[in-house]
Structures are given as structure tokens and as C-alpha cells.
Amino acid sequence: MTEHEGRDGWKRATEIVGVFLLSITAVLTAWCGFEASKWGGEMSIAFSQASSARIQAASAEGEARSAQSFDLTIYAAYVEARGRGEEELAEYIRARFTPEFEVAYIAWVADGQVERAPFAREEYVPEGTKEAEELKARADAKFAEALENNQRGDNYSLLTVLFALVLFLTAMSQREIAPWVARTLLGLAVVVAIVGVVILSTFPIKI
Predict the structure, then answer these.
(1) What is the pTM for the complete model shown?
(2) How does pLDDT run across 157-180, given as a tens digit for each residue?
(3) Which domain holds residue 106?
(4) CB contact at 8 A, 42 and 206
(5) Residue 5 domain-assigned?
(6) What is the pLDDT of residues 86-121, one digit of tens each?
(7) Is residue 2 situated within a structural domain?
(8) In a domain, 84, yes or no
(9) Phi and psi angles of residue 12, each rounded to the nearest 5 degrees, phi first
(10) Residue 196: partners with Cβ closer than 8 Å, 6 or more residues away
(11) Residue pair 70/98 in contact by the 8 Å Cβ criterion
């Protein structure tokens, strides 16, 4: 094989590898853009769900405060009636204790009324309290999920930049430049592409 034929062979091989690399990288770049868009959508949904859960939690907290206010009012009337010795009125008021307060009141009396009032008992859980806690936890979880999805989208976007570098190096290697420079650029493009593919394989996929 002559030196000229050898150069032509290297040039042909470089062109073939370059075309292959350009094609594969173009597909991978498009895929990264698609995934970045999908995870961006997931982030928006999770943020929306977190916001909705916080609004619902605030509503449940308001319900719990209203329930506690009602219990305080009823209990104050009950204590006042007992204090005046109006037992019949006191029992009438007692019958209107909410189930949540009644449980705490019974436990408070059974334990010798150690606390200043039944409201200090752990058994006292106003209506809406548990729901508010659950909704807060859901909001926190969805917010954390949204941040994670945002990071995933950013990771895909950064990988798009890496593959853009591969496209640049490959395109430069196809220009009329010294053969050793073309081979160096193409080799570097291959290395960067392999690194990008390895990183890409570790990312979660959203279809």
C-alpha cells in the first residue's frame, strides 16, 4: 500500500467514524432534550401538587382551630355551671362535648386531673389536626420530589451541552486540516461521547 493510499484510507475511516458519531450524537442530544422537557413537566406537576396540599393543610388547620375554639367555649360553660352547682345544666353541656374532647376529658378525670385542663392531654386531637399533619407531610414530600425532578431535568440539559461538544469536535475533525489533528479531534470526540453515554445510562428515564 502506498503512502497516498494509506492517507486516503485513514481519511475514509475518519469520515465514516465521523458520520456515525454525528448521527448517534444527534439522536442522543434529541433524547436528552426530550427527557429534560419531561422532567421539567414532572417538576411543575409536583410543585402544583405541593401547593394544593399546603392550601388544603391550611384549611384543615383552620378547621382544627375552630373545633378547639368550640371545645374551649363549651368547656368554659361546663366549668362555670359546675361552679354554680347547676349540675343539670352542667350535664346538659357535657352532652355537647365533641367526641375528640370527650375522650380527653375522660382520660383527664381518670388520671386525677393532673393537668390544668383536658386540652393538655395527648388524647385531645381536634378534628382536622391529623388531616392537616398528613397534608403538610404530603406537601413537603411533593416539594422535595419537585426539586429532585428539577435536578434531573438540569442533568439532562447539561448532558445536552456535553453532546454538543461531541458534535463540535466531530465536525472540526472533518475539515481540511492535518490528518493527525483530525484524528486527535475525532478521538477526543469519541472519548467525550463514551463518557456522555456512561453518564446517560445512570439517569432515570421518563416516558
Answers:
(1) 0.78
(2) 999 999 999 999 998 888 877 878
(3) 16-201
(4) yes
(5) no
(6) 999 999 999 999 999 999 999 999 999 988 899 999
(7) no
(8) yes
(9) -65, -40
(10) 28, 159, 162, 163, 166
(11) yes
